[in-house]
Amino acid sequence: MEFIEILKVIFLGIVEGITEWLPISSTGHMLLVDEFLKLNMTEEFKEMFFVVIQLGAIFAVVLLFWNKMFPFQFKDKTKPVVNTKIISLWFKVVVACIPGAVVTLLFDDYIEAHLHTPIVIAATLIIYGIAFIWIENWNKKRTPKVNHLPEVTYKIALIIGLFQVLSIIPGTSRSGSTIIGALLIGVSRVVAAEFTFFLAVPVMFGYSALKFLKFGLNFSGAELMTLGIGMAVAFLVSVVVIKFLMSYIKKHDFKVFGWYRIVLGIVVLLYFGFF
After folding, report:
1. Alpha-carbon distance 23 to 254, whole Å?
2. What is the CA radius of gyration of the chain?
3. Distance CA 161, CA 45 (A)
4. Contact between 191 and 152 (Cβ < 8 Å)
């Protein structure tokens, strides 16, 4: 594997680690970067890579939120203590995953064939950027109804899951769509982000498994190295970004990400409109 290709993979891993948890669309950024910094790989591999690299980011959230995500605690060597609140939360996560799983199985191939374009990405970046700004301005006059994860009900989980369906369109952002849905129904920013983290784990493991099966398991040495480096870099960068995000949203709103999406979307439209 050439050194220049390794540098490309490292850069893509950095982009993934930054954009996976910020509501600015990791897939959209990865597809846009590929327009300018193309990996020397087959289109079939890149289609799989842009999804599976996100597992590195998922491992980061599992590491950082292990105590909140793992329901079994071993206070001595023989008797595990079961946290029923965490188990209940995982059932709610499963409910939230159902709409997205159904839509992905039905329409994933069509979306990839027709909507993975710079213009679509630019449009969704702008639309949801405006949505973030509008919702945050609207929220100034509201008090969150849900301020702790255990307060998330099955109904709230399902509504957030329905909003996650929107993220199948590139440029939308999985975290962005779920956070927008959560904010609209009165969930606090911190809980919205934390529930998004929970939701990402089964979603991305399932989506990655689907891509693995579609691609097959006959990887070349260069392909395995590309996956390994990309996931490792995404993991390390995600650890830093997740810590930053959780600290940031305790004192600030999401409007800065909305403005970023709008500016990036306009730049993309201008570039692909004139070049």
Report:
1. 8
2. 19
3. 29
4. yes
Helix ranges (DSSP H) in the chain = 3-19, 26-36, 43-52, 54-64, 66-69, 84-114, 118-139, 154-164, 174-184, 189-215, 221-248, 255-274
Amino acid letter, residue 233: V
Helix (H) or strand (E) holding 73: strand 72-74
Ordered per-residue pLDDT tens for the chain, 275 residues: 788 999 999 999 999 999 999 999 887 788 788 888 888 889 889 989 988 999 999 999 999 999 899 988 776 666 778 889 999 999 999 999 999 989 988 998 888 888 888 889 999 999 999 999 999 999 988 999 999 999 999 999 999 999 999 998 989 998 999 999 999 999 999 999 999 999 999 988 988 888 888 888 888 989 999 999 999 999 999 999 999 999 999 999 999 999 999 999 998 888 887 66
In the chain, where the domains are located: 3-274
Strand, coil or helix: 140 = coil
Geometric angle at alpha carbon 159, from 153 and 162, rounded to 5°: 140
Residue the block writes with tokens 């970067």: 33
Taking CA atoms, 71 is separated from 23, 59, 91, 241, 271, in Å, by 28, 17, 12, 25, 49
Residue 112 tokens read as 């990839």
Tokens (6 digits) for 163: 């909003």
Burial class (CB in 10 A: 0-12, 13-18, 19+), 236: middle
Of 121, 89, 105, 47, which Cα lies nearest the Cα of 197?
Answer: 89
Please tell me the distance from the alpha carbon of residue 157 to that of residue 93, in angstroms, as a whole number. 7
The values of phi and psi at residue 187, to 5°, are -90, 140
pTM of the complete model: 0.88
